[in-house]
């Protein structure tokens, strides 16, 4: 009888969610012993109980103090975008061309287009992302960036710009071990100047005039059920087999219809079902992420399947 330990973060996930998932697992897979631990505590009682049987730990986000004596651990952690892109390519996942900006970088517009995205290799919430003329992309020493710019602490990347339409938009597909819990579509506030084509940045005053980043507070979110987008998000999870919970940002080229994965939130801070950010997003936009696909039911099934595959058990 294997153990499954779910590591809980009260600031990011409702304990009621985890209790309901545990209840569903116990009802459907009584051979699995489910426990819920606090990520910031040592939880010695749980550790000692877990030591008696094969154990799998699932922590959606990085743990602080909780550790087990033995067992398989699946845990969210930050990964640089460059590492994500290499993994996507190895897994056959479509990702826009990219390269690290180094002192001798010189990008050819005939390949990259007239404009490219420049972004930090390691940053959150779209920090440091700008659009630049391809011919003007140059290496910038870390110390030349502002003190709070992510470029002071990680390399900068150039990536092909994917034109998603007059207003920047993208999909976020959130998966648990490759199963979609929920999916949303995000579009930039239409009070901004529209971008009429992929090369129409001239006179737009950069990102401020025609946004290329769509996940702003003023953006409009709707539930997404595009089968191709969801399938791509589930495929993308295979590039990160050690990470349980992922949020994949996917775009569709408005001219060609091609889909690309821009990046994945590998830290696992994407439990929008009950986080403060997620509750606000659902309330503001008038939808229910729990009900979209049956998120907690899917989470329970995904965890049951993972434990059974890990330890060779069955119903």
TrEMBL record:
The keyword Transport does not apply. PROSITE patterns: ATP_GRASP. Residues 85-298 form the ATP-grasp domain. InterPro entries: ATP-grasp (IPR011761). One of its GO terms (molecular function) is ATP binding. It comes from the Bacteria. Keywords: ATP-binding, Nucleotide-binding. The keyword Repressor does not apply. This is ATP-grasp domain-containing protein. It comes from Tepidamorphus gemmatus.
